Description:
The chain has six helices and four strands; from the N terminus they run αααβββαβαα. It is mainly α. The strands form two sheets. A two-stranded parallel ribbon has the order 1-4. The chain has a two-stranded antiparallel sheet with strand order 2-3. α1 runs antiparallel to α2. The longest helix is centred in the C-terminal third of the chain and has 23 residues, at 129-151. It is elongated and about 75 Å long. The relative contact order is 0.11. The model has no long low-confidence stretch (mean pLDDT 80).
Amino acid sequence: RAVYECVEQAVGIFPELQEPNAYLIGFMNSVLEFSTSVDASIGGFLEWWADEQHKRSIHATPNPHAVQIMTIHKSKGLEFPIVILPFADWAMGPHRRDILWVRTEEQPYQDFPFLPVNPSSKLEESYFQQTYQEELLASQLDNLNLLYVAQTRAQYRLYLLSKLPSKTIREFRNEKPLLNLSDLIFQSLSKMEDLA
């Protein structure tokens, strides 16, 4: 307890630290945790803190009125009164940084069991057209599932924030490949406009 009391007295010297402070409370909880250890001396604390300080984090108390920031994956199974989905313009197809492992019996590649290629529309004109189309379809399905999860978390309101597309709504009516989520959103809006 001596270490905790010393820190408590030190904190009392600084008027700025008298206001509620999550970092100070977290630190004081760490000091209290340490003070129950075998070597509860100030020197022991300083050694312990040198090792522990980077492993510690502050745990926020769940407040129903607080803004919570999380990934779409983490939000699965949860529900919120209002959901804001920023950057709703991610690519619908595979990312160019990805590697697609393909196989073919065509010359001159038949001796290789698998070849690494970057997924791009150039594969549409190659031996790997079918594999690319399968990967494109699987990627689009994954992204639609992700969008579904994001859109079904809201109880009352959902805000999708996206860039405006480079095309007008009329140009989307006959567009076949959807390159990104904002294209999908605006194409859907154009079809709703047709139905109205």
